[in-house]
Every structure is written in structure tokens, then in C-alpha cells.
Amino acid sequence: MSPFQMVDGSAFTPPTPLCTCLRRYISLPPTHSSSTPASYTKLRGEEAESDRSIECSTAAARSKMVDMNDVLLVVSAAVLAAMWWRRCSRTGGADGLPPGPPGWPVVGNLFQVILQRRPFMYVVRDLREKYGPIFTMRMGQRTLIVVTDADLIHDALVKQGAAFASRPEDSPTRLLFSVGKCTVNSAPYGPLWRALRRNFVAEIVSPPRVKGFSWIREWAVGSHLRRLRAEFAATGAVRMMANCRLSICSILICICFGAKIPDELIREIEEVLKDVMMMTMPKLPDFLPLLTPLFTKQLAAARELRRRQLGCLAPLVRARREFIRGGGERNADGNTVVGGVEMVSAPGEAYVDSLFDLEPPGRGKRLGEDELVTLCSEVMSAGTDTSATALEWAMMHLVLDAGVQDKLYGEVVSKVGTTARITEADVEAMPYLQAVVKETFRRHPPSHFVLSHAATRDTELGGYRVPADASVEFYTAWVTENPATWPDPEAWRPERFLEGGEGFDTDITATRALRMMPFGAGRRICPAATLGVLHIQLMLANMVREFRWVPPAGEGPPDPTETFAFTVVMKNPLRAALVERRVGGELATGGGGGAAASA
């Protein structure tokens, strides 16, 4: 295409310069009669020539002025555009906010993060090096204040706990699964959150309740050991994550609904809850709500998943309600069966029992079936993922380090012997077991971030302003990676938590000081932290006492590479072989089954 041809093929005529137009205009011959004397004509011609010269000089000057005005206009427009860009893209350092990377208009740093195609935690690590321990990011329409320093995190969550205790606005997808923020984790700081949390603590993690649930843990651990034996006998290896998830989830289902259900249904529930957690992870419309109409398929998939969730759990809610009303029939074990569901807890002993008559502030009525399913899902999801992930990482290190495994086995046997049931009181008297669990949480925290927080009002942190509408993200991985706090932080060494070690007096709730925070800190700390740790300790002690753990035949050592699946998990799930520690493989709880492995 010629440079002087239009897109439609027509010829393009370059604009005539202003000076040429003026020149043509002033050179037009004057009108005069044929009787004009020749001398006058000559004189007039000389005057005209002089006029033309003057006019052309004037026109040239005007042309230069016009050209200069055009230049000034372009420069002014460029300056204004730059100022607008800077104002729109300015991330931090303005209005007292922490500093941060410059972004693009409207989208801020959102696409800069997306285009890097790597986990957000690695982006945060790089930005921390450049902007310091607290910085600002503009993610679409959301302002993120990212905090990475232990002292600043402790200041925000513990010292200024009430000011940072709320949650940011949720996306339509998360609101669907939380039924309008009707969960302990998602409720904004206020009366609803207090009512839900108070009920949770009283019904699940109060000392009388924890003691009352001991039979559930004993039953679940016995079933867990039998499954491990059977799977190893059939395949020559056991899948650690899958088996631990199933066992922990069975405990929490029984706590929530007072019911024992088949393993197949537990697996179905566990799979649905895992899908829900992945569905509610942050996505593009969360940061740019104006794009929501473009993601109708995603919202439709969320609604379908919600129907699956209700389909799995609503029958348990209905069966429990009918059981409390006196319905059902006795089975051979003396337990009541309602709608095919075996009830094993007396009325009033299941978590859902306490929710039937609860009227939390702000809801205007008793909780409906949707809310009951959601609140029980919260218990099962959070408890299953955190505990199972920690168990897999701990067992990986025990497979890699036979010396630590033998030392832990020696402590367990010295306290309870080889056959007695391991109780809650027993694990409290096992300092090396506790050190193994703490070091696992330090080296492999469940997540590199805690759940998003929001300030309840405009406040300050580290000398910077934190607006009430900002999302405050606490990057906690650096807390346990900091070599100034933890020498040789990449090493997994339980001895650091024994007397004389640098972590001996570490408080994992971070109340006194923040050196690690696997369960969060402050007012929004996970209320079931102690229960989760108890489940991990009991299962770990039983598994190590029953078996010696080694890599499967023909396979190398486990791969410690991590990946993200709501929690930080092993990229290649742990497979391990079992070596029976006692001839015959009899269970400490009196059960049996499966072929014993040979050394």
C-alpha cells in the first residue's frame, strides 16, 4: 500500500501548508480597467510585489507560530498524560500508604503479577527485597497492604488486634459458599463473628468436649492403622496424604454430625470440600468486578458444586435432626440408624446439635439448612487439610531421616510401651514428639499467607496509613525462613525445639512474640489449633510405634518439592513402605487385619 493511499483504496491528498495557501491568496492579480496608464500599472506592480514580499514574510512568521503552538500543545498533552498515568498507576508512598511498585491505570499491578506466571508468594519475596517489609499493591479495584516482618505482623494482629480483625469484601463465588459470610472464618469482626466463634469454642474445643471426643479419635486411629496395613499388603506402598485425609475427615464428620459413615461417603465428602476450597481461591473477577459478566460459566460451575456439597451433607443434617426428635431404629450394635446414617453420639454431643436453635445476630432467624451445611463444612475443610498436610510432611522427613524416626519411636515406647493405647495425656508428656510437630510446622507452614484481613477503621502500621477498605495480607513464610531467628532455616531439625535449642520457648500462638504462626495469630487465630495439633500428635505417635517407615521397594527417597493446593503440599505425594515393629502386626487397640510386612 502506498503511504499516500487510504485504507479504502482512495487517494490521500496531503494537506496544503498554511504558508502556501496565504501565498496563493495574496498573489491574485488586482482588478483594473484597460485604460490604466502603463506607468501606474508598473508602479502598482512594484507596490504589489513589495506587498507580496511583506505578506509572505508575515505568513511565514505566522506559520512558525502555528507550528510552535502545535508543538506546545503536544508537549502539554504529553505532560498531562504522564501526570494522569502517574496518579493512576501510583501504588504506594501516596497519602501515607506504604511504598510499592508502579502499576497500570485501572488494573494496577494485577496483570504484572499474572504475566509473571509464577506463584504469588515468589512475587512477594522479590517485592520485599525492593520495597521493604511492608508495601502496597494495586490489584485491580483492590488495594493490598502486604506485611512480611514478624514484628509488624505481631503489632497488627496481637497488639492492635481489634483494628485488624475484620475480613475484606468477598466475591460472589465465596459469598455463595459462605451463605453471605456466615462462617467463623469469613464473618466480619462484630456480633455475628463473636456468636459463631463462641459457639464453636464451647461445642468443639472446650476441655470437656475435647475429652468427650477421645473415643472418636481412638476409633479413627484404629481404623487408620488397619487401612494402612491392608493397602500395603495389596500394593506394596501406602499413600500418606490420601489415608491421613480420610482418617482426619472421619473424626471431624463424627464430631460435627455424631455419625459414623462408610469410607466411600467420607471420600466423596472430602473430595467435594477440596473442590470447594479450590473454587473459592482468588480469581480475576475478584479484583476487577466489572469483568464478572464474562465469567458466567465459572459462576455456573460454582452453583453446581454447591448443589453437590448440599447433596452430600444436607442428608446428614436432616438425619441428625430426626434423631434428636426421637426418630430412627436400633441396629445390632445398639446405635440408632436414621435414613441409613448410624448415629453414635447422644443428643447434644454433636456440633450441629448446637446450631439447630442458634439465632446469631444479624441473621434475623434460626440458621437454615444452607447455613448448617456451611458451618459444618468449615470445620471439616480447615481441620482436614491442615492436619493431613502436616502429617505428610512429618512422615516424609521421618522416611528421609531414620535417626530421628528411631529417636521418636524410642520416646513413644518408653512412655507407653508397645501395646497400650496412646492417650491425650501421653502425647503431652512426649517432648520429642512435640518438637517433631513444631519443626514440621516451622519448616512447612500450611500456607505462606494467613487468611486475608481488613482493618476495621483507618489505622497505622509501621508508620504508614492502612485504610479501612484495604486487604491486609500477612506473608508468614519469611518469619520461619529468617536466618536471624532460625539458624540454618532450610534444615529440618526437631532438636531446635528441645531445651537449649533456639525454639524451646516458642509459642505457636504468637501471643508473646511471633516466631512462627501456623494457625494465624490474634483475634482471628484458628480456634481449633490445639485440637488439630492433638490429632497430628496422636496419629504420628501411633504410626511410628506400629511401623518403621522406609521408601517403597525400587523407589528412591521422597521428593521434598512443594506445590500449592490450598495448603502447601508435596508436589509428588508421599508413598512409603511399612515394616512391622511387632511380630504378628496386632493393633494396640485390639484390632487386626492385613498381612504384616517383612523387613
From TrEMBL:
Gene3D superfamilies: Cytochrome P450 (1.10.630.10)
Molecular functions per Gene Ontology: heme binding; iron ion binding; linoleic acid epoxygenase activity; oxidoreductase activity, acting on paired donors, with incorporation or reduction of molecular oxygen, NAD(P)H as one donor, and incorporation of one atom of oxygen
Example GO BP: fatty acid biosynthetic process
GO cellular component: membrane
InterPro entries: Cyt_P450, Cyt_P450_CS, Cyt_P450_E_grp-I, Cyt_P450_sf, Plant_metabolite_P450s
SUPFAM superfamilies the UniProt entry points to: Cytochrome P450 (SSF48264)
Cofactors: heme
Entry's localization field: Membrane
Residues annotated for heme binding in this entry: 526
Family: Belongs to the cytochrome P450 family.
PANTHER family in UniProt: CYTOCHROME P450 LIKE PROTEIN, FLAVONOID 3'-MONOOXYGENASE-RELATED
Protein name: Cytochrome P450
